[in-house]
What we know:
Elements: E1 7-15, E2 18-25, H1 31-34, H2 44-59, E3 62-73, E4 84-93, E5 97-106, E6 109-121
Antiparallel strand pairs: 1-2, 2-4, 3-6, 4-5, 5-6
Amino acid sequence: MQLKDFYTVKDLSVDGQLATAQITINSKHDIFKGHFPGNPVTPGVCMMQIIKELTEQVVEKHLFMTTSSNIKFMSIIDPEKTPDLVLQLDISETEEGYRVKNTTRFDDTIALKLSSNYKVISKS
């Protein structure tokens, strides 16, 4: 896990190619000391890493992001106000690895939508 102690997976369920994860962001993580003091905002790159890590758990393979598209940050994820997130991952296999279409939300608010392609890598 690249983001040590940044988030906790409360539940991860898989139904066919659709995975749903419930996570909680750690509002006390050191990242928020710099992003931003007194007004924490979950960095988009961290959300992209979470999506990759959850996908790796589902497919049980190590992945490397090759491309991302349709990245839409639609609402700020404030870890002090809305630490609990639901991520839906629509995972489909490709020739190189996997394509993932993600929607991340808190309560009834969509915070992030993106599509990413990953290739399978061997971990030494």
